[in-house]
């Protein structure tokens, strides 16, 4: 299969790319990658798909959300989290659907904060929850047998800078998270959230 991975140079994107490239042709994209795209910019998403052409699977491993105590979060903070993490991936689906072959798939990335809160994580919880609901509903309406799932991991072993904020949470290996992307791309599941930890 031809698999387009957005955010392929990041922690999750590298894990997804490594696992998927064992069996598939992986095209790596990000703002500074082999294939350039900025998910914050509709035109950039369209240009990426025009350049890459038809693919069998699209995997998004991106999303930035502000982390602050609830009392300090502003409307602008929530808007930035939604614009970046939620709408970046939603627009990828909207603009990318015509470029995904029949029976292909989208895999988005959310995170454990959709189901377990941490201090300062309200905007991230909101973004992850919104994306997971989008996946559930979009699965029923995507055309031509195209599937959509989300990978929703706890903090990664390698993300040591975040470990102090995730005390007591399971730490997920890059192998384990890579296999969740493989399950979504190679499996038959649709509208599912693959929760790790
Ligand atoms: N790390 C964890 O432990 C963990 C756990 C659970 C969930 N998550 C979630 O997983 C997602 C990825 O996290 P990560 O830790 O892998 O991040 P990361 O290491 O910072 O990597 C982010 C990747 O996305 C690309 N990128 C950033 N902004 C982009 C944009 N506007 N358009 C296109 N590409 C963009 C980056 O490359 P360029 O700079 O070249 O664009 C990079 O390849 C986030 O939503 C995060 O909340 C992470």
Description:
This protein is an alpha/beta fold. The protein has one domain: Rossmann fold (3-Layer(aba) Sandwich), CATH 3.40.50.720. It has 5 helices and 7 strands. The protein has helices at 11-20, 42-52, 75-96, 122-139, 174-186; strands at residues 2-6, 25-30, 35-36, 55-60, 100-109, 147-153, 193-196. It has a 7-stranded parallel beta sheet, with helices on both faces. Helix 1 crosses helix 5 (174-186), helix 2 packs parallel to helix 3 and helix 3 (75-96) runs parallel beside helix 4. The mean pLDDT is 98. The structure holds NADP nicotinamide-adenine-dinucleotide phosphate. NADP nicotinamide-adenine-dinucleotide phosphate binds next to helix 1 and helix 3.
Topology:
Blueprint: E1 2-6, H1 11-20, E2 25-30, E3 35-36, H2 42-52, E4 55-60, H3 75-96, E5 100-109, H4 122-139, E6 147-153, H5 174-186, E7 193-196
Parallel strand pairs: 1-2, 1-4, 2-3, 4-5, 5-6, 6-7
The structure holds NADP nicotinamide-adenine-dinucleotide phosphate.
Residues 6-13, 30-33, 37-40, 61-63, 85, 88, 109, 111, 153, 155-156, 159, 162 line the site of NADP nicotinamide-adenine-dinucleotide phosphate.
Mean pLDDT rating: 98
Helix and strand pattern: EHEEHEHEHEHE
CATH superfamily, called what?
A: NAD(P)-binding Rossmann-like Domain
Calculate Rg over CA atoms: 16 Å
The N- and C-terminal alpha carbons lie at a distance of 29 Å
Molecular shape: globular
Bound molecules: NADP nicotinamide-adenine-dinucleotide phosphate
């Amino acid at each position: 299969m031809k698999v387009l991975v957005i955010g392929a140079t990041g922690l999750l994107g590298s894990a997804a790319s490594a696992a998927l490239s064992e069996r598939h042709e992986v095209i790596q994209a990000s703002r500074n990658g082999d294939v350039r795209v900025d998910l914050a910019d509709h035109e950039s998403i369209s240009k990426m798909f025009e350049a890459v052409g038809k693919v069998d699977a699209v995997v998004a491993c991106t999303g930035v959300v502000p982390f602050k105590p609830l009392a300090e979060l502003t409307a602008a903070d929530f808007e930035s989290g939604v614009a970046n993490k939620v709408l970046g991936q939603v627009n990828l689906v909207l603009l990318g659907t015509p470029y995904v072959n029949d029976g292909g798939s989208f895999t988005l990335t959310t995170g454990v904060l959709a189901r377990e809160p941490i201090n300062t994580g309200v905007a991230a919880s909101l973004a992850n929850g919104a994306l997971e609901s989008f996946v559930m509903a979009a699965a029923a309406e995507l055309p031509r047998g195209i599937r959509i799932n989300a990978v929703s991991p706890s903090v990664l072993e390698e993300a040591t800078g975040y470990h102090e904020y995730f005390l007591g949470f399971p730490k997920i290996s890059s192998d384990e998270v890579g296999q969740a992307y493989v399950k979504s791309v190679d499996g038959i599941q649709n509208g599912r959230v693959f929760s790790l930890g």
